[in-house]
Every structure is written in C-alpha cells, then in structure tokens.
Amino acid sequence: MDTTEERAGGRTVLTYGTFDLFHIGHLRLIERLSQMGDRLVVGVSTDEFNAQKGKKSVVSYEDRAAIVSAIKGVDLVVPEESWEQKEADVRKHGVSVFAIGDDWRGKFDHLEPLCEVVYLPRTQGVSSTEIKRLLRVLDPAHLDEIQDAVNILANLLTHYRDLT
Ligand code: CTP
Fold it and tell me: In angstroms, what is the span from residue 89 Cα to ligand 1's centroid?
C-alpha cells in the first residue's frame, strides 16, 4: 500500500481503545502492534466519548493517555472523540495498518480501501470490566455482607463446639 508514511520510509500502525486500569492484555496488544510497523499511533477514548458509548472509566482520560504514552513502542497518543474520526486519522497519520483486538472483528472493515485492517486475538482471562467487577466486591456494602457471613459462621462454630 502506497501511503504517505510508506513513501517517507515507514509503516504506521493505528489502534484505538479506552485502556482503563491498564493491564497485561493491553500491554500484550501494544507489544504486538509495535512489532507490526515502524511507528505506533494510539487513539485513547476520551471520557466524553466513553459516555457516548455508555462506558465510564475509573482512570481519567489525561491519566490513561499519560500511561499509554509511557509504554515502550507507543510513538503518539491522540484523543479518540468520535466513531467517525478514524478515516481522517488514517489519512492524517499516513497509516498503513489499522489493528485492534478481535472483540471488534468486522467492525472496521470499512477502512480497508484506506489501509490494511487486522484483528488480533485478545489475551484470555483479563478485561477492565472484569477488574471493575472484582473491585466492586470490595466496596463497603459488600464488606458488610462479608462481615455478616463471617459472624454467622463464627456463631455456628461456637454452637458446634458446645455440642461436641
Ligand atoms: N485487549 C486485548 N486483550 C484483553 C483486553 C483488551 O487484546 N484481554 C485489547 C482490546 O481488544 C482492544 C484494546 O486492548 O484492542 C483496548 O481494549 P479496552 O476495551 O480498553 O480493554 P478491555 O480490557 O477489553 O476493556 P473493557 O472490558 O471495558 O472492554
């Protein structure tokens, strides 16, 4: 593909994501993406765009963008503010490859006239949503429930000891 970037002697890879509570799945994806080209541009979803998607991140856009920028292999972070910006970003950054996890399989095929579109396998067993679900278990309401259960168990053990 003869993109501006390739004419300039490099292959630019582009991806997008929220990258909330940065985890090993995010790291593995970025490692693979950076190996696919010479330059990696990452669009990080803004808090406003996440609200449009019905998502709310624990970590703010500014902090998520700073974390992703600091990861080895990431050359540029841009804000992802809408679904429609992808075509313009591909042109603006001379992108050769658009790549994203396969939870998005088929969703960005419309970019194929502009660049190669690749869906990469996700790392199994980890997601920001799952981490948030686990963290919710530790919120004060659940801690009270756990305390109640422990008290009931302690009482049962006392009765059992009295009976034996
Ligand atoms: N990703 C991955 N492996 C995972 C989790 C995410 O390869 N275990 C990839 C996604 O496919 C996407 C990028 O990382 O290309 C950013 O995904 P994001 O939605 O921010 O992360 P998730 O952990 O999937 O968050 P959520 O559970 O909120 O969807």
Answer: 21
Pocket flag, ligand 1, residue 32 (CB < 6 Å): no
Please classify residue 128 by burial: count the beta carbons closer than 10 Å to its beta carbon, then call 0-12 exposed, 13-18 middle and 19+ buried: buried
53 is known as an active-site residue: yes
Q: Specify the pTM.
A: 0.85
Buried b (16+ CB within 10 A) or exposed e, 82-110: eeebbeebbeebbbbbbbbbeebeeebee
pLDDT recorded at residue 23? 98
Nearest to 45 by CA among 30, 56, 32: 56
Ligand 1, atom 4, lies closest to the CA of 25
Domain 4-123 CATH assignment equals 3.40.50.620: yes
